[in-house]
Structures are given as structure tokens and as C-alpha cells.
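Try it yourself: sequence plus zinc ion, in.
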Amino acid sequence: MIIDGHNDLVLRTLEGEEVRHVHLDKAAEADFAGGFFALFVPSPKPAKPPESLHYAMPLPDPIPQEEAARVAAELVEVFHSLPVELATSPDDFRPGRVAAILHLEGAEPLAADLSGLDEWYARGLRSLGLVWSRANAFAEGVPFRFPASPDTGPGLTAEGEALVRRCNELGILVDLSHLNEAGFWDVARLSSAPLVATHSNAHALCASTRNLTDAQLDAIRDSGGVVGINFAVAFLRSDGANEEDTPLTEIVRHAQYIAGRIGIDHVAFGSDFDGADVPAELDGIAGFPKLVETFRAGGFDDEAIEKITHRNWLRVLGETWR
Ligand code: ZN
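Structure, out:
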């Protein structure tokens, strides 16, 4: 059974674009049981994507809360229109069906005084990233840069600190992917839940701002948390290139590094399907069985594969949700 830390099927569906990766009709065959389905309010696309292998994209402009809330309402509607079950308990993940965690990627739709958070929870929200790669009322995300450190800006605002505490109380998972390093350490200090990066990789192997330094990985281990390995080729390859002709062994390489450093209990999948360019041979969720075979060939035994594919996510969800 596969549980995955991140996909952008909801936005892709809202925008009327063709599904590239999360073909739900292939779920049963691929043993895909769902995972985190992001609600993401997009920034305007940059006029020019990076051409050079070394790049430093500017931080996109903030999105006003009212505007973000309006788009988020549309995203929620799309989410509920998908042929999936809303996941609010680890028991909701079962072979033969797809369960979806309602995940807010960037907290822009929330009022800074958190007045709407209880209503969001009541509607099924069980995971949120304080930020996408931009600034908001709560924190600041990393701009997309390579090679570069994730230490790119200030930490959490007072509102951001209050949001982390309230998420802990409600049992909403706080996702660290996209957050800058100062913000990461603020959450590490404040949060009572296991630390989670739903879709990030090892900075030691691919020096993108989106990846985690060794010290960040160690903190995730110490909290009992988990890292969802991101399949985006730009966050896998040591040259940072956005090149889909990339072997599946690049995904295994990051899993080996992270498991080697912090242990197999802290490694999972966080594909970024339908939100990023991934190895072409994967062919979306249909490629999970092939990916698992590549992990086996890379030295992961049955128990390790069970942990990576679903047991680590289930443990962390069980310790985070109420
Ligand atoms: Zn993302």
C-alpha cells in the first residue's frame, strides 16, 4: 500500500489541465491508497523559467488573504468532487480505495487572527504548510534557488507562532516543506508534534533551497518525524537540472542518504505529482510498483519498504491527529 506526501491534482483539475501523474483510475492497480492532496493558491507563473543550471528566482509577491480565500473555496469544491474519501484518521487508509488528506499548501487563505481555522478543521483540514515559496502573514518560504542555502529570510511572525500552537491543539499537521530555515527552527522549537517535511530532499545531494540540510534532517529524526522524498527532478539531481530524463535511482539515492543519516523510520514518499517535472519513466502513480522494485534493488528489504510506502506516514499521522 502506497501513501504519498504531496500531489497537486486539485489545482490541475481546477485549471482544467490534463492530469499528468495522479491517474486515479490506475490507483488500485498501483496499490495507491492516497495521501496528501494539496490546496495551492498559485502565484502568477514566472515569465521565464530558469534556463541556467544555476538560478536564483525572485520571491513571488504575497497574495492578499481575501483573494487567496476566494481561490481556496474553489479548490475545496474541486477536492470534494474527486472520487476519493476524506482522510481524518490513519484507519481511513486501506488497500483498494483512495483516501485524501485535505492539505493547505500556504496559509494565505486563513485570516491572520486565525478566526477561520476552526471552520477549516470542521471541513476536514488536517494538514497545512505555513507557506509556499513566498511570504505571508505567518512566515516566509524559500525562493527557488540552486545552489543555495535554505537560510533565505526571517522566521515566523507572532501570527505564525500562534498558528503552530493552534495546529498542535487541534491536531493539524504542520508541514515544513517550502519554509525557510529560520522558520523551520522556529517550528522545531515551538511544535509539540513530530516534524514533517511532506515533499523535500537532502540538501547534501542536491543543493536546492527546497531541500533539507543535515541539521534539519537530524531535527526531524529527533522529533520522531518524517521526510517525504520529492520526485521533482530539480530537487533530486546533483546538478539541479529540470530534466525529466532522470533515472529512478535518483529517488533511491536520496532515500538511502536520508535513511543512512537519520534512520529508515523517517523516510517516506512525497511525490509532488502533478505539481512538478518528475522522472519520465515513472509515468505517474502507475509507476509506484516499478519504483518499489528500484528501492528493492537499491538494498531496501521488505520491512524498510513497508515503512517507506505507508507505515511511517501512518505512525506520524497517528501521533499528530486527534
Ligand atoms: Zn510544493
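One thing you can check immediately is this: The chain has one domain: 2-320.
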